[in-house]
Design a protein that fits this description.
The protein is globular, with a radius of gyration of 16 Å. Helix 7 (144-151) links the parallel strand 4 and strand 5 (155-164). The chain has helices at 9-17, 24-36, 45-59, 73-78, 95-105, 121-124, 144-151, 180-193; strands spanning 63-67, 87-92, 114-118, 132-137, 155-164, 198-203, 209-214. The longest helix is centred in the N-terminal third of the chain and has 15 residues, at 45-59. It contains eight helices and seven strands; from the N terminus they run αααβαβαβαβαβαββ. It has a single domain (9-214), classed as Rossmann fold, CATH 3.40.50.150. Helices cover 37% and strands 20% of the residues. The chain has 217 residues and is α/β, with parallel strands linked by helices. The chain starts with 8 loop residues before the first helix and ends with a strand. The relative contact order is 0.13. It has a seven-stranded mixed β-sheet with strand order 3-2-1-4-5-7-6, with helices on both faces.
Length: 217
Amino acid sequence: MSAPLIISPQAEAYAQLFTSADHALLMEIEEYTNAHHPHAHMLSGQVQGKFLAFLSTILRPKYVLEIGTFTGYSALCLAEGLQNEGELHTIECREEDAQTARNYFSKSYRKDQIHLHVGNAGEIIPTLNHTWDLIFIDADKTGYIGYYEQLIPRLAENGIILADNVLFHGQVLEEPINGKNAKAIHAFNEHVKQDNRTEQVLLTIRDGLLMVKKKTI
């Protein structure tokens, strides 16, 4: 079975040519994941990863939350702008992927600031008593609305939520939309659109990123 494609592989390849190269540890994670993981296409990759790192360095967050660690690539991107006393908490449901991520986190200069939790995100989120400056949702698509509703009350006034795969390989553009995950993503996009607490922009980076912030009065 071939990996699902992003909306425009050609545009993504062109964007990559003009995006700064990853540092060595990120390159190591990408090479390992591509060589050994059956779902390597789930890795954020250079263009999206650099966007996450840029946003983190601009926001200078104290508390970052990631739902869906995978092999650790995106967490390290999100950690780049952490304040010196800041923390990144990342949640992964699969122990095998969590172990891979732990290995790479241990090689990072941010290792003492990264906290990996293994288990059900819906159960773990309430145990993390922080106000989040930056949140990245990249986990089970049917869980997006639930995670969003759990986290909106804990989002900092100037905080940002990013939700990944909101184009879901182009399947949300089909008429009618087929497939459980595509339907769930479309429902999530509609849910955020109707939320009068927030405003959002859908970015066509890779497989789609929805950026959400609280409305300013």
